[in-house]
Structures are given as structure tokens and as C-alpha cells.
Amino acid sequence: MDYKKIVEAVFHDDPTLPSTLIYDYGITRVYKINTSEPLIVRIVKDDTASYQFQATLLDAVAGQDNLTARILYWETRSIGNQAYGIQVQTYIPGKPIEHYPNGKQSRAIIKTIYELQQRLCAASSKVATNSVQNIHNIIKERYSLVPDCPIKESAARLLEQKRYLKLMSQPEQCVIHGDLWYKNIHLEQTENQIKVRLIDFEPLISGPNILQPAILFSSYFLLSALLFESDRLYLFNMDELFSYWPESLNKDDILLMMLVFPVALSLLKEIRFSKSPDADPEIRQLTMDPLEKSIQIIRKISGLKVFGC
Questions:
Q1: Could you give all domains of the chain from N- to C-terminal order, each with its CATH number?
Q2: What does the pLDDT average to over 56-81?
Q3: What is the reported pTM?
């Protein structure tokens, strides 16, 4: 298949290769190519030098069950003064659920992320991981760029924790899917089966194995509860979720590592808002509130033990 032709068809709105814009958020646009076997074209305003690494990694992770998409073609190009990274990917069926998952869905999602973790760890030993940033270094770098605010305080307290530093310094590090919020987890449901598949492996980060379930619990389950069921947060049952993970988890360590996702993402958002003084205050509040509440809830559940209090 001529993937270059498909990319050009998207840029020039070629009716012979019809496409549908299915996602448009700031720096990223995603198109579905309506061929006999649908494809995805992902366009990002950035010159991405890690596409070879991503393609190799995702091919290993996809497996025979197509757990995630495969990158079939990639290129970078400049249009005007703007650099673009472009990927052609296989199409992942299913769709995200826009509600807090029920028990059956939760089990299927957690089982799938466990399988993802196993495949990412196996692939990490076979591919060069120098294209992937360590999440601890990301937090340290962002922390210094953020003006004084509650998020910066939370980040500082996290970075001071001896247990956090010990977990982050473990010699065995692997590639982690760093953005498991609800839009990136697709469910394909029948009467008797739930198939879970994953999209959008950016950002990929590196960290200890425990970080993958922690990101799942904070960025998917807790954030979904805040987005969809904020008046029924009792649905977010940590002990029940932990019991679905196939291996035993240290609750205190998981709660500590659950802070990584909302703290890191909040630092990034604060940097962007600080660089845009004219940003809509309502948009800022809608963006930051769920993340700040996530941090508060995790601290409350943990009894503040993660902060040594």
C-alpha cells in the first residue's frame, strides 16, 4: 500500500481516499482513512525523532491479538515554519466508555494493562530505550519551571520522600505507557466478551514496574470517577481494584506512585498556562481541578503516610 499517497490525501483532502477527522486537540490531529481495511493517520506538531523506536516497540507489544496499533509508516516534514511528525497506523476497533467502568469492565481493563506491562517489560530488554525519558527526571525538570503554587508544593513533597526515591532508583526500569486516561483505552464489547485495546503511546516514559498499575489506577480509574461520577466517588474502591491485579501489590507503594501521574501532568499544564497569560481562567480551572483533586484524594486514602505525616 502506498502510505505516502494516503498522507498526501489527508493533507490535500483527496476525495478518492476519503478520511474523517476523529480527534483534534491542539498539537494533535487524528484521521480515520475509510478504506476497506481502515487506517489511522496521526499528525503531531513536532519533529519526532523517536518514530523508529516507537514502531519497533509497538510491533512487539501488539502481538497476535492486536493489543495496540502498529505503526506502518512514519515521516517528518516542515510546512511553513512548523515541523510535523506523521504516522500511518493500523486501526484499533472499539471505543472508550464515557462512564466509570463496572466490575466486569474493570477486571477486563486491569487484566489487559497487566498484559501490556509484561509485553513492555519484555520489549524493553530488546530495544534501545534512550529515546524514553525517565519520569523522575521529567518531574524534577518541570518542578523548577513552575511558579509557586499548590502543585509545585505537592511535587516538592513527593521529591523529598525517601521511599519514592528508592522506588524510582530501582535498577530494573522498563518502558511505561504514561497516559492511560479513558480516551486511550478502547473497549469492544459483546454479550459474552470484552476486548480491551490501547491507543496513543505518547508519552512513553521509563520507570519501575510498579509505576504501570499506579498510573492505571490514578489516570484511568480515579480520573474517570472525578470526570463522570464526582458525586459518587465511593465507586472508586481501591481495595477492589487492587484485588483484580494478577500479582500482589504493596498498597502504600502503589498509593505513593499513584501521585506520579497527576503531579507530572499538573506540572506540565501549569507550565503551559504560565506561558499563556491570556488563557481562559475557566479552561484552566476545568483542566486543573480534576488533577488537584486526584492528589488530594490519594493523600486522603493513604492517610498522608506517603508524605511521612
A1: 3-90 (3.30.200.20), 103-307 (3.90.1200.10)
A2: 89
A3: 0.89
